[in-house]
Amino acid sequence: MSNNSSVMGAGSPLSEEVLAPAKTKGRFGAFIRKFCKQRMALVATCFIILLFLVGIFGPFLTPYNPDEPNYDALMTGPSAAHWAGTDEYGRDILSRLMDGTRLTLAVSLSAVMIAAVFGTIFGLLSGYYGGWLDRLIMRGSDVLFSFPDLLLAIGIVAILGPGLSNVVIAVAVFGTPSFARIIRSVTLSAKETLFVEAARSMGAKNRRIIWRHIFPETISSIIVNVSMKIGGAILAAASLSFLGMGAKTTEPDWGAMLSMGRDYLSIAPHIVYFPGIAIFLTVLAFNLVGDGLRDALDPKTKN
Amino acid sequence: MKAKGKVWSMFMLLLITVVVAAGCGKADNNGGTSNTGGNAAGNTEGTSTATKDNKDIVIAINANFITLDPHNASDTHSISGGRTMYEGLMGFDENMQITPVLAASHTISEDGLVYTFTLQENVKFHDGTDFNAEAVKVNIARIQDEKNNLRLRKSFAKVAKVETPDAKTVVFTLSEPYNAFLNKVAMAGMISPKALQESGADIAKKPVGTGPFKLKEWVQGDRLVVVKNENYWQQGLPKVDSVTFKPVPENGSRIAMLKTGEADFIYPMPTEQVSEVEGQEGIAIETIDSTIVRYVTLNTMKKPYDDVKVRQAINYAINKEAYIKVVKSGLGAKLDSTMSSKTQYYSQQTGYDYDVAKAKALLAEAGYPDGFEAEIWGENDSETIKGMQFIQQQLALVGIKLEVKSMEGGTLSDQINSAKTPEEAKIQMWYVSWSPSSGDADGATRGLFSSEMFPPAGSNTAYYKNDNVDKWIADANKSIDPEEAKGIYANIQKTIWEEAPWAFMGVDQIISGKRTYLEGVKVYPDGSINILNAEVK
Amino acid sequence: MGRYALQRLLGVIPLLFVVSVLVFMFIHLIPGDPARLIAGKDATLEEIQGIQEQLGLNLPLWKQYINYMGDLLSGNLGNSIRSGMPVTDMLESRVMPTLWLTFLSMGWALVIGLLIGVISAVYRNKWPDYAGTLTAISGMSIPGFWLGLVLIQIFSVELGWFPTGGVDSWKSYILPSITLGAGIMSMLARYSRSSMLETMREDYIRTGRAKGLREYVVIGRHALRNSLIQVVTVAGLQFGFLLGGSVMVETVFSIPGLGRLLVDSILFRDYTVIQALLLMFATQFILINLIVDLLYGVLNPKIRYSS
User: Fold this and answer.
1) What is the interface pTM, i.e. ipTM, of the complex?
2) N or C: which end of chain A has fewer CB within 10 A?
3) What dotted CATH number matches B87-203?
């Protein structure tokens, strides 16, 4: 890499990256160093750490009981007593947001993790082996795909019944095929690279090639996707709530708060405003972290 | 460089927050000013639409029309749509009382078996053919034909024969007395026999009736446009040239259409936003009591609801005033009987005022001093969920820990009706609403309280069984004297009220919003829309 | 290449068959009895059984499947269970609004998304990159139904620029397509950025630079062309999503399209309509996928198709 740097113009947009010192003190060190250069990602990481802290300790920190109604203080705007105002039952919105952080994160994270694991396995197998296995997996994902996302989710929730785990399954199922397809397309490209061909010609076993040579190539895609899908999963769960098929309407899930509050948008906008901001910032943060991770983890910059 | 980058990223995060805040802040302003009588939003549209210079009106409703076949419609909107073009021998007025329409007069025989209708003269169908006794006969034959399997068939099951002694007289003979028969007659719009023959099954798409409006176009899922029937038999009507119905399912969007003047009339007007548009220039809100009752059925054959004390305790534990304030935004009434005050033979009951101490005492007497755990079912629309959440909060105060299970309509119906016997039933509590489709007391009682109507045969999900009530329901149905029927229904209501197979919640209000220049569009207590007298002023 | 295309095209047929079976099973797995839902709450048991018989819902499932396939193969989609109208009529009036919405959304999303992606990649870690990334990410972080409602509030109610919904003029489509396209735009922007960055690191790009080619030639002719492969994948996949997944937008903006028809049909277990719609979506999707796969070959000569 440093060989090329001499021919680059100093003003080239890529100069910063290309001129970056290539000395490595172990993979992890390099990763940390690179990641720390992504300032937006760093800020976002702090935000997510904060979110997880709230998720873990939130229920003990809430200023009010999140489920305690107060019919004499319905839909009051933000004030010193209620920083984010109260909702249509007079419950403290800030407390509900804090209490609901855990639920919101748990649903989206578990759904995306399930989708990532299955999607990656299918994508790698399909892309690497090709042939009938590829056709089987890809046609399978086509079939899943050919049902529009939300419909699939609606169907799954309708068949399995409402409930937290069923929403997780629904969101995971429609996340899986897109993972598989994208991992497959990366695998296809990676398979053609010189070092994979070299490894193959040296008689390396398929499993080893997949695991040691192709899988690392897919990591950046997996990470970009996971980051993107976490946000997407939060939004998908909210959409299910919008259609009345959400996880638990009585619990302070952010999506449920948003969709249940939407009838009040024009009279008490803070009811939708704060859950909306919470969702917005969280999705934003996960995406920024994904971007940062992506650049820091890229296997090609390690050589 | 490094510091600069950090500042940048912080700034960007801030910027996004501000952008979102600006979007919301705008909505906030709007809500705030309109409440204090200003017209921040009124300014933009007020000039262009405070008056209307044509006679074409737009009505936004919350769901699609399913069919325009007046004999086969089961949902309120399809019934409304059909009634713009069709009329029956009888009809309903705005208090759900039966009034003559195509029948000028009618007589009922002493034994309640023979109904004789004298028809209006000089009435023509939209296709120019005459409306006469023969046409009535054809229509009733169509309804009764098993092959057609029309929704209205069961309403006319007791009609033994239809005779037409002359062109303007129709005689119905019933196999047994049927108290609600006129209500059923009012549901049957008269279709042109000629059109019936020509269109066959397509009649649902190409209505030809005697009504004040004729079909212009019906685009499934988008709009239904009806135009003035120039030859309408009632002089001077209708007063508008055309009416366009648009299905707009999202509440916020429907309100927006009213505000911008894209719609002249909207129904239903979401209760949450009434306070916002009320008093806004150019917009008027109309409310009337409905026949729609909301309640929670308690499975009287299941523990602990088999104990009347538990059921009464639940009724005492729920604050109905707060229910109306929180769930209905203050627009509604307490349910003080098994039916709404707008339903035939309603009789007011008293008791079950909010009393937590009494509820706890009753629970203790029944052997549940610390309450119990229970499950409530309901559909998954936001209004129902809101209600169930409220009930959950209220019952928590007397120790009943309620789990809210909201299900999609089809799933819920399956859950309820898959139990073939009361013993198999899993249902505990069900938060639901009911409205008798033709405003009659039988429709508001039999399906809900007769022991023949346990699911899957009917909607008696409380599995309520009282031999007296069963007998009274049958008696009332055969009674031909209105006073006698009234007495019987009063007994029924009193008995059921005391035995509390339901938690009695509320009666909905019918709320519609309109532009002030529009007069005469009425929503009836059953939720159907009547446009006969619509007028632009 | 030609042989591969033909092979794939033939592969569509068994796939469609599998889909038709799955679709049939899928809808019958959903609990709920259409007869009961049509008949209404106050229907009698006899009435419900009458409807079941009339619609053939009382037959064993395999018989129902045979009937359905028989109709399908003779090109008959049947009548809606709920309204009794021919399904083809219902689809006909709903196709155009959804297609318009889809194409408009995809159109602007693709243009803006690619633009943002390329600018972000070229000016990596400079302010245009930050601005672009944030614009993109904002778009995908806002729940669609919420964005739609806010847009109506601002642009229809307060400013009066656009209608609140419907399909009466081209103006009606502006707000819905912004709402629907926002998420896709973001996705495309991010994908094009990342794949641009990836390709710009490839040997032949460096070679190009080393040969002294101008930067815009390197980026425009080589990097962009090669990063299109990922973007095309994503766009193709999202196309299917847009076609079917516009439920939310169609609801908020009261557009009488296929998405809303589908949700309404599911609510009433209108089997014939659901079947027809799902098959239609499936066919569309499979064809789009085929095209995407074939475009791979055109855009990236490095991929070999082995049969």
Assistant:
1) 0.74
2) C
3) 3.90.76.10
